[in-house]
Amino acid sequence: MSAVKMFNNSSLNLLSFVLTGIPGMEEKNALMAFPLFVLCVFTLLGNSLILFVIKTDPSLHEPMYIFLSILACSDLGLSMSTFPTMLRVYWFDSKEITFRACITQMFFIHAFQWLESGILVAMAFDRVVAIREPLRYRTLFPNIAVAKIGIAAAVRCICVCFPTPFLIKRLRFCSSSILSHSYCLHPDIMKLACVDIKVNILYGLIIIIFTLGFDVVIILVSYIMILKTVLGIASHRERLKALNTCVSHICAILIFYVPMISVSLLHRYGKHFSPLVHMLMANIYIMAPPFLNPIVYSMKTQQIRQRIYNIFLRKQTRI
Fold first, then answer.
1. Which parts form a coiled-coil structure per UniProt (predicted)?
2. At CB < 8 A and 24+ separation, what contacts does 111-114 make?
3. Most buried residue, 92, 100, 202, 257, by CB count within 10 Å?
4. Is the pLDDT of residue 98 over 80?
5. Is 178 helix (H, G, I), strand (E, B) or coil?
6. Which pTM value belongs to this model?
7. Using CA atoms in the order 210, 211, 213, 215, what is the torsion angle rounded to 10 degrees?
8. What are the φ/ψ torsions at residue 232 (nearest 5 degrees)?
9. Crossing angle between the packed helical segments 99-132 and 247-269, to the nearest 10 degrees
10. What integer pLDDT is reported at residue 243 of this predicted model?
11. Measured torsion, CA atoms of residues 75, 77, 82, 83, in degrees rounded to the nearest 10
């Protein structure tokens, strides 16, 4: 009886977790460190440049660009939440992370992801108003409305993610402390628990259905309305012009949702795949949106592209 009691007292909770680099090839972690560092630098520079361009150019202080700046802030937050531990694992082979640091990272990763999803919905609504009511766009979508939508998206992501650290803290962990990735996620942590995790699973399912699912439905409905409006335009040139304003946003949607859905399907139905495949997909899921969004908006949005070009042109002229 005393032995059982001693076991329960000594193994109820872990003080730290162990992060994972390249599964089964830990000696090759250093090979991925430098590309990861370069990716990190370009991600931070790209999103910072987008923010700088929008902030310094008054002509870009419009709803679409304000939402884009919030999206860039979300990407920066996600990058700063994940890259330090990833670089530490791959570069210095330092895999241990304390329990508190892990659940804090988990909270911020999920919060910034839900924020990004909410902003993508807001940007879809912005495109609907801009295309269906171009003459009344500024009246129907003033900056104060944009600010309220941004605050609502931030409050929503905090409320959605607030229970997750407490749901993890109530769990008891026994022997295994090795996570599947080089960062902490709620599904990954809860799988290590040696007690019933039905509450965690149920909460995660409810959140996905009523936030992510709801967001996807709103975006689909928004683009159905946009297509109906565009098809009603007589001029072929005007149709292309209207659709062209949505290209960047459509790319951002695909960049965000496709990896997320792919990782979810892989976790559910791809258990027979190599751990290396799971690691690569998980890293793409985290790193792709912050890295690719600035590239997409720089290339596909003429106003952003022209401002960036002007910045570099001035620097070359000074030299």
1. none
2. 111/77, 111/157, 111/158, 111/160, 111/161, 112/74, 112/75, 112/77, 112/78, 112/81, 112/157, 113/78, 113/260, 114/156, 114/157, 114/160, 114/161, 114/211, 114/212
3. 257
4. yes
5. strand
6. 0.90
7. 130
8. -85, -5
9. 140
10. 87
11. 80
